[in-house]
């Protein structure tokens, strides 16, 4: 049986996560539209700055006031920024990501016109939060955000 494009794109996001230099978590993302890949991304510092696993191998990048990496972009941000930088139209696109979007990423996803998000694992569970705020935000404002099966 042929794999679905949803399955293929989620597998690609999982493979991309392995490219991350983050010491704390590896996350991958794929942006697709009409069965075509628009952009890919994984979490890490902006290109040309440093690699966390090389510069901060024991504990990762310095933490911000909320305990998150102070230097890295999230996988979704990297995929969206690269697409926009190259003039891609994201209206109606689908995002596949290995970790459900945090709230700031959800706002970016919504604003970019992405209409559907498939995710593998829960950001809330990873961060010890009571709910997936990003998923709740997206679903509230008309972006279908669902756990991949």
TrEMBL record:
GO molecular function list: dCMP deaminase activity; zinc ion binding
Q: Which Gene3D superfamilies match?
A: Cytidine Deaminase, domain 2
User: Where on this chain does Zn(2+) bind?
Assistant: 74, 102, 105
Limits of the CMP/dCMP-type deaminase domain: 4-132
Please provide the Gene Ontology terms (biological process) for this protein. pyrimidine nucleotide metabolic process
* Entry-linked InterPro entries: APOBEC/CMP_deaminase_Zn-bd, CMP_dCMP_dom, Cytidine_deaminase-like, dCMP_deaminase, dCMP_deaminase-rel, Deoxycytidylate_deaminase_dom
Could you list this entry's UniProt keywords, alphabetically sorted: Hydrolase, Metal-binding, Zinc
Active-site residues annotated for this sequence: 76
- Among the entry's GO cellular component annotations, what is one? cytoplasm
Q: Where are the transmembrane segments?
A: none
The cofactors named for this UniProt entry are: Zn(2+)
Q: What family does this belong to?
A: Belongs to the cytidine and deoxycytidylate deaminase family.
- What is the protein name given in its UniProt record? dCMP deaminase family protein
What organism does this protein naturally occur in?
Answer: Mucilaginibacter glaciei
